[in-house]
UniProtKB/TrEMBL annotation:
Organism: Sharpea porci
Textual note on the cofactor: Binds 2 [4Fe-4S] clusters per subunit.
Record-given protein name: Ion-translocating oxidoreductase complex subunit C
NCBIfam families for the chain: rnfC
Gene label: rnfC
Taxonomic path: Bacteria, Bacillati, Bacillota, Erysipelotrichia, Erysipelotrichales
One GO BP annotation of this record: electron transport chain
Amino acid sequence: MGLFTGKGRVHLAGHKDLTMHGEIAQCPVGDTIAIPLVDGTATDFEICVKEGDEVKIGTLLALRKSMYVPLYATVSGVVTGIEKRMHATKRQQNHVIIANNHLDEKVKVIDIKDPDHMTQQDIIEAIKQLGIVGMGGSGFPAYKKYEAVKDIDTIIINGVECEPYITSDYHEMMRQTQALCDGAEYFRKAAQAQRVIIAIKVGKPELYAKLEATAKNYEHITVTQVPDVYPMGWERLLIETLTKRTYDRLPSEAHVIVDNAASAISLSQGIRTGMPVISRLVTVSGNGIKYPTNIDVRVGTPVHEIIEAIGGYVADGEGYVLAGGPMMGRSIMNDRFVISEYMNAITVLKKQEEHTVACLKCGECTLHCPMHLQPVRIMQAEKANDSDLLGKLDVMRCVECGMCSYICPSKIEVTDFVAKGKRRYGLTLRRKKA
Ligand code: SF4
Ligand code: SF4
């Protein structure tokens, strides 16, 4: 094992060449767009429109009840209803359905101000009203990290993209370098931090040179390359690598806030235009896709329309579709779910016969778990329906990074068992509280 590989981190076959060098495609915007009433896994939304309402790009469609999270229309047209549809959470969820009039009429969600004269509060309010979320997959509302901000000295802009196949952040950073640095600077001002570190993985010399050249114009921004190991993009490991600091619950305990590179770009664009995120770059890749590519997609577009637009599957019905990358993505039963602003990739992998054998009790999964859990014991507790033991084994700390499945020589989907264990124990906790 090399210097940066070892316990909790491995070098993965990246398959990034599939989409690293090609042109970026444009996905036609369909006649119907579906905006999911989902934020991460939360679904507590108050709907602000009804069937027959005319909407523009930027019209408020729904607001989350327990925490301020706005959802906006991404096309102009008419609301045709609220429907349950398959979602990337692997469940049927409510969606606002909009018949697109293809006029792209717009309404701003914030007033445009002179960026040089925006106060800390102005910027935090802009992050909130624009609905900026963690666009690397988390979907967490970014303003929550800045609302009660205190003693933050460092903002890390995460452009590491450590999952195999995914290159959307790479391309976004290449084509929006200035917006990335502007967004990073807004985040710095929102936290009154002293510095910003833009982190990318080694082995991207063109991007590194471009970022370095642009960052020279920003007093507080530096660009750093981190090792090509998984899960380097995970914020706990990234903070430890860049600052040598650790924390218990939240990065703010280490005086750090981490934001995704695409989120920084969206913030900059939002402040400049007054508009929320209406489209995003998505990597569509994997050995089940005929022509892997990065494609600009309107939020709310069904995945099957995107895959058709780039030439389809290698063989229909013979791959499985993941919302995200192969390590942390969720396998979805069909391609009818839609793209959300925080979904950076669709990965389609050919089904292959995996010959699972019994657990060898080798301990590799425990050795490599970045959260220092015991995945094999959690798996056994889950199989035994033992909620108490799941709690004792701290199952809720699992970040579902996929490492235990990847590393398992018996080809056991250990992560699936751990994820099921999390759900089981979470349910037990909720029942106890009720
Ligand atoms: S999926 Fe969970 S249990 Fe498995 S290695 Fe990652 S953090 Fe550990
Ligand atoms: S890595 Fe696989 S075989 Fe080894 S202990 Fe974990 S579950 Fe068992």
